[in-house]
Design a protein that fits this description.
CATH architecture of the largest domain: Orthogonal Bundle
Number of strands: 0
Number of helices: 10
Strand content: under 5%
Radius of gyration: 20 Å
Distance between the termini: 63 Å
Largest sheet: none
CATH superfamily of the largest domain: Tetracycline Repressor, domain 2
Helix content: over 70%
Structural class: mainly alpha
CATH class of the largest domain: Mainly Alpha
CATH topology of the largest domain: Tetracycline Repressor, domain 2
Order of helices and strands: HHHHHHHHHH
Mean pLDDT: 92
Low-confidence stretches: 1-5
Oligomer: single chain
Shape: globular
Number of domains: 2
Amino acid sequence: MKDSVAGQTRIQRNKIATITEAALDVFSTYGFRGSTVDQLARAANLSKPNLLYYFPSKEAIHTHLLNGLLDIWLAPMRKIDAGGDPLDEILTYVRAKLAMSRDMPRESRLFANEVLQGAPHTRDTLSSDLKPLVDEKAAIIRGWMDQGALKPSDPHHLIFSIWSLTQHYADFEVQVGAVLGPEVPDPFPAAEDYLVTLFTRLLSPDA
């Protein structure tokens, strides 16, 4: 008997979740071009025809993953509040992005691979969803700077810097681990201390 959610049965939803989880492993490891339907089916412990019953192509699985990921990725930025304390709002965003790199490294690498390939499956979404949101938050940040609550800088490039400095710990996880060595099994506490200090000194009018 079908449940009401999206007209799918519980079994169908479970299968889709299984495929999505397996695809996240495969795509984040091999990238879109380096992944095959056979790999995806094996990772999901399904036959190839069974997998293709739920998703008609590798592209469909990839797009499904990315669409869900973008909503999650943008959630911390949406929380930046024009009425909040300016430096606290920025540092909360930095911490949230770093936590996502800690807790969701596969998702970060999946998105990074998509962008490196020219964003073939998300270009329209980046223009329609990401750009207006970034422009909105950049305008808020510029307003804080104009009021003297933050040191002046380019708000868009500030946001780019936050992305690159936080997502580095997921996208280059192997490199970070190789450099720090086994004596530092968890780089994130020190990374958070460093990034909070960095952005506080960059943005605080009293620094």
